């Protein structure tokens, strides 16, 4: 490995001494401890990281989009330079295969470069100019201009299931840094080594582009101790989190109970309902089964967008069921991210199979061994599903529940679902048109609605909404993926009566950045 | 009066029977009860209003921007038709003079028409289109399109200090209706008659434009009972509030503790600091004093943007102080909105004058009688100010505190202030340029920064941010005034792989609405 793992937190441009008993990563495939002991920082060290972030905010938030873009691109370049380290350490810490490591690294650097392009171009600030009318009657109209400004230092929690794309230099970090917010990252205990590899890359990039110390820190330690210290600190102005519902709810509660409450963007749980309309499932049953199986088992089912709930109209889909059964029964087992996640999946599937009215449609013949999960499909009648809220919950892993009933019953059930990241419909053109009610109901429960596709595979682009109504996220007004994510770390500010040379460049009459703006109500 | 005041809640297109002991409005100038008894609705009636709103959302959220615009314009027209009723009843309920009633009515109808223009034009939805690339390697790119969609039914609380512009058909109602959200309004006990006049106008407009019943309801009764019933109901998806900090905090707590937490947009308290730089205050001292006096006493100081804190550099501003003193001492008393607000102002000023280190600079010679307040100016040294958090609080009314110290001390104090709606600086061009640190520090504490003006007078336009960091508002990511306010009642949604004719018109390839959109990363 190029990277020398030190096992200590990164406090601005220094390394912590650490404290207490160290922890080690565990190889989920073997249960073996991996080299390098990781130490939590002391509370003084956490305070130091926070102070550095507060100081860095003053300087960093004043940098131009071009300067921030240079930093983001340099981070991407530094990560590219350690991809072999990631590929070496990553599978050991996560059980995820090498191609996934490479793909996720590419997605992560792609995200960083996309945000770099966004802030370099500059129109994302939503600049609005209303020129003054000193002679307006009865009152003069003031010169008033607005744009988005960064909130302040942001705490980002690494996700177990995305050691790169939703971790140290993942989506929230990229969006926050792009917006002008310093980032304090809390590493995930499952993959501390990947965290350090990426963290060191970020620090090299910050130094190389002369960023203020404290624009980035990386902290080890527990969520309850170090994580909560970040969330409760008055300097921290927003929180990004991807993980369990209990973890997200704890952060929301802590943030709401601060003297100054702050926004928490927690992505928590989603079963991503898939509705199969009769003609589609009868004409394309095998193809849909193949697609569902691939989506369901991708990454051992450990995606926030995993399709965990399928509505199948009674009397349809025999070939679909047959094919799904065949694929599930012959599916291999897969290593899950860590022992806790694997156990939780086994507990959830065992609860489902013990629930009255729930039938096991298919279960892999592969023996389910330690740390490895096998896919499973259950089914239940829609009326039973409506009676039992536990059946609405997520079994994080390669499991799905097929809910059967009439199309009318299915449509009536959608409003009873919790908020979802995604919702999917398979239908022929004619039956989609005839079922606009279902499409509308799904839109009201989800952040992204998909026709004739599958929810996994989250495109990083301008139009992606990866965020839905509670409890899929804490705040459905926001996305964690795509360029729109920059907005979550901003607030609008107005400047009234300012002389030209004291205005931000984005708001000057001569538009030196050449960005798209709204001037006196017209986009120019 | 054209309007027949019935004193009962408006539940969709019917009137409530009401319950309990009625309340009457009080003329704050005389203490006399005004005609018409107002009854709170029963809880069944509240539930009925909420059910109607839930049902209306399905239909109303699917209307085109043009149809919603027609409704908003009709509301404005109906309000125009009852302006004489408002002018007759309004001053009796609020103590505010007739010209203010006419001005605020015009602002309210202007707001409604501005939102009508916005949604009729349609670009506000932030439509984004990324066309699919089925042949992309290694994975196909899906067709993905996003835009803003309404959150759901919204609860709006009327404000004591803006019986029209922040009440029944005020900013939050206009923004929510424009976004596609039905509105449940909780009337303010101080001006129930104006509420009913406007509420009846809204209902006439809804019927005339064939809106679904339940798009609007108006409920009397107490905040703790009827207001909380709205905030806690699962149907309600957002809350708009302008009022006291304690009231706003109670709503935030209730909303955060729901099984599904929802956003609360509470505008609570702000002292709107004004920094006077030495040259400006020495060269334009009298003019600044006149402006400050006018801003401070406008509407008896009962504006959220009232300048309640003035930083004056030691050794400067003698003429400013002299002139301010002269104007304050000869100022008449003014009727405050209600007895409670008047008493709270008297208590706050008496606390200030009893605080060690605080001097009374000027006090009106006019006797302060019942329900009437007179302006007052205090001063304190900056070091004393820093020691006593109570001095940072709002005295809602025509009172201000001058804080004196060196320019360095003033700059160092700004980060210690709470979040503010506005922050103002008076300076010559040269000294503004020399004090960018002060401008930057104020920007970080406020939603709107003003140069050489005064904070009162909130322009309703595209670039207004009337919302600042906590506690000036509960959520500084949003504005309650101007067209950007529509965003607070929306969330983004993505459509993936949809056939053209099932997409919202805003997202179709042929752009039938002719709106500004982002297509494959470019604004077109």
Please describe what this structure looks like.
Two copies of one chain form a homodimer. Chain A has 524 residues and is an alpha/beta fold. Chain A folds into two domains: 10-16 and 38-259 and 478-488, Aldehyde Dehydrogenase, Chain A, domain 1 (3-Layer(aba) Sandwich), CATH 3.40.605.10; 273-451, 3-Layer(aba) Sandwich (Aldehyde Dehydrogenase, Chain A, domain 2). Helix content of chain A is 37%, strand content 19%. Chain A has 16 helices and 23 strands. Chain A has helices at residues 43-60, 65-81, 83-94, 98-121, 171-179, 192-208, 223-232, 245-256, 278-283, 285-297, 318-329, 339-354, 382-387, 407-413, 429-434, 436-445; strands at 10-11, 14-15, 19-23, 38-40, 128-130, 144-150, 154-157, 183-186, 216-219, 238-242, 264-267, 273-276, 309-313, 334-335, 359-363, 372-373, 376-381, 399-405, 420-426, 446-451, 490-496, 518-519, 522-523. Chain A has a seven-stranded mixed β-sheet, with helices on both faces. In chain A, α2 (65-81) runs antiparallel to α4 and α10 (285-297) runs parallel beside α11 (318-329). The longest helix of chain A has 24 residues, at 98-121. Chain A is globular. β21 (490-496) of chain A pairs parallel with β20 of chain B, so a sheet runs across the interface.
What is the overall shape of chain A? Answer: globular
Largest interface: A-B, 74 and 74 residues
What's the mean pLDDT score of chain A? 96
E-strand count of chain A: 23
- Overall number of domains of chain A: 2
Structural class of chain A: alpha/beta
> Largest sheet of chain A, order of strands side by side?
15-17-18-13-12-19-20
Instruction: Please indicate the percent range of residues of chain A in DSSP E strands (runs of 2 or more).
Output: 15-25%
Q: Which regions of chain A have little confidence, pLDDT < 50, spanning 5+ residues?
A: none
Our count of helices of chain A gives 16
**How far apart are the first and last residues' alpha carbons of chain A, in Å?**
51 Å
């Amino acid at each position: 490995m190029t990277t020398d793992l030190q096992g200590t937190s990164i406090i601005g441009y220094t390394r912590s001494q650490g404290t207490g008993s160290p922890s080690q990563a565990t190889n989920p495939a073997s249960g073996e401890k991996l080299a390098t002991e990781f130490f939590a920082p002391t509370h003084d060290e956490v305070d130091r990281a926070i102070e550095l972030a507060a100081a860095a905010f003053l300087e960093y938030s004043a940098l131009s989009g071009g300067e921030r873009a240079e930093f983001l691109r340099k981070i991407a370049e530094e990560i590219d330079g350690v991809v072999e380290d990631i590929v070496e350490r990553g599978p050991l810490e996560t059980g995820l295969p090498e191609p996934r490591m490479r793909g996720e690294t590419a997605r992560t650097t792609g995200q960083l470069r996309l945000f770099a392009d966004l802030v370099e171009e500059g129109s994302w600030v939503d600049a609005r100019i209303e020129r003054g009318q000193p002679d307006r009657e009865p009152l003069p109209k003031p010169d008033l201009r607005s744009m988005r400004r960064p909130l302040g230092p942001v705490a980002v929690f690494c996700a177990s299931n995305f050691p790169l794309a939703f971790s140290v230099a993942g989506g929230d970090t990229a969006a926050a840094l792009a917006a002008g917010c310093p980032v304090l990252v809390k590493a995930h205990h499952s993959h501390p080594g990947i965290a350090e590899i990426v963290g060191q890359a970020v620090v090299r990039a910050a130094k190389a582009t002369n960023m203020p110390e404290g624009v980035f820190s990386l902290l080890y330690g527990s969520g309850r101790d170090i994580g909560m210290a970040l969330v409760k600190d008055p300097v921290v102005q927003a929180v990004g989190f991807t993980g369990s519902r209990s973890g997200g709810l704890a952060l929301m509660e802590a943030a709401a109970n601060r003297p100054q409450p702050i926004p928490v963007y927690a992505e928590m749980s989603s079963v991503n309902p898939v509705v199969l309309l009769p003609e589609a499932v009868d004409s394309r049953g095998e193809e849909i089964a193949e697609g569902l199986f691939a989506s369901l088992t991708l990454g051992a089912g450990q995606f926030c967008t995993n399709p965990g709930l399928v509505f199948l109209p009674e009397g349809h889909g025999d070939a679909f069921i047959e094919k799904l059964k065949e694929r599930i029964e012959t599916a291999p087992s897969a290593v899950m991210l860590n022992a806790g996640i694997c156990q939780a999946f086994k507990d959830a599937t065992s609860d489902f199979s013990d629930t009255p009215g729930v039938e096991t449609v298919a279960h892999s013949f592969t023996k389910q061994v330690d740390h490895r999960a096998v896919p499973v499909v259950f089914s239940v009648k829609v009326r039973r599903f409506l009676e039992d809220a536990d059946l609405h919950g997520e079994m994080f892993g390669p499991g799905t529940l097929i809910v059967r009933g009439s199309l009318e019953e299915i449509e009536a059930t959608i409003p009873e679902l919790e908020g979802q990241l995604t919702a999917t419909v398979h239908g022929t053109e004619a039956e989609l048109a005839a079922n606009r009610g279902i499409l509308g109901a799904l839109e009201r429960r989800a952040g992204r609605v998909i026709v004739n596709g599958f929810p996994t595979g989250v495109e990083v682009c301008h139009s992606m909404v990866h965020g839905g109504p509670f409890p899929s996220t804490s705040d459905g007004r926001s996305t964690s993926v795509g360029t729109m994510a920059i907005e979550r770390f901003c607030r609008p500010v107005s400047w009234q009566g300012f002389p030209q040379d004291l205005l931000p460049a984005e708001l000057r009459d001569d538009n030196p950045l050449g960005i798209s703006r709204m001037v006196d109500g017209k986009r120019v």
